[in-house]
Amino acid sequence: MEAAAIPAAPGHGHDDHHHHGPPPANRSSRAEPAMLGMLLFIISEIMIFGAFFTAYFFIRVVQDGAWMPEGDHLPVAIAGVNTAILLSSSLTLHWAETALKAGNHRGFRVGMLTTFLLGLTFLFIQVNEYVHIGFAPHDHAQGSIFYGLTGLHGAHVFIGLLLLGIVTLRAFRGHFSADDHRGVEIPGIYWHFVDVMWIVVYTTIYVV
Questions:
Q1: End-to-end distance of the chain based on CA atoms, in angstroms?
Q2: Which stretches make up the Heme-copper oxidase subunit III family profile domain (predicted)?
Q3: Cα–Cα distance, 202 to 80 (Å, whole number)
Q4: 31-63+76-207, what's its fold?
Q5: Helix-strand-coil percent breakdown of the chain, rounded to 5?
Q6: Average pLDDT over every residue of 74-95
Q7: What is the tally of helices (H) and strands (E) in the chain?
Q8: pLDDT score recorded for residue 32
Q9: CA 33/CA 56 separation, integer angstroms
Q10: What is the DSSP letter of 205?
């Protein structure tokens, strides 16, 4: 007598790939690694700036009198012009991104080059301010905080210029398109963060 066929146990057929663990997440529920990495990096940078601002506000609270010692003055007007230059670079960057998404490659290249030059101008004016400001970081606590905060921001501007320079070079080589612009958006988010952070630095250090 023939032995009865034994039915295959469920989940053990030929089509079973022996998947272990939870099923993979849907694409819509996962952030792109590049975007997530940039956002996490910005959060960590906010914490670093927060430490410097904590020292700044501590000095403002415990000391008597004006923010800067008598005889030392900050170039508020020049820094205001420099602020306008940096904020303009955010506008030109947005214009460049919009032009790229619309298929306007000439506008994209001009916008990126303008953004880079505006950022470079900001950094040049900032360095020139250090040369002529009249006090050093070790002269007093206020000087240490001033150079610390503005220098930290200047370092971020320098990094941003490196990123913008790479994007600008690739733009003139035709590496981006209306459907392929992630390499522009990620550095753009960083540059907008640098601009927003400068507004906070300028307001607290130069104006308040």
A1: 98
A2: 36-208
A3: 8
A4: Four Helix Bundle (Hemerythrin (Met), subunit A) (1.20.120)
A5: 70, 0, 30
A6: 95
A7: 5, 0
A8: 78
A9: 35
A10: I
Confidence band, pLDDT 50/70/90 cuts, at residue 24: low
Angstrom distance (rounded) from CA 148 to CA 144: 6
CB atoms within 10 A of CB 47: 9
What does pLDDT average to over the chain? 86
The pLDDT assigned to 19 comes to 54
Residues in contact with 19: Cβ distance below 8 Å, sequence separation at least 6, in sequence order: none
Whether the CB-CB separation of 93 and 111 falls below 8 Å is answered with: yes
pTM to 2 decimals? 0.81
Tokens for 94? 């947005």
Q: Which residue has the tokens 């790939």?
A: 17
Six token digits for residue 2: 């023939």
Residue 190 contacts by C-beta under 8 Å, 6 or more apart in sequence?
38, 41, 42, 159, 160, 163
Average pLDDT over residues 163-179: 92
What is the rounded distance in angstroms from the CA atom of residue 72 to the CA atom of residue 142? 10
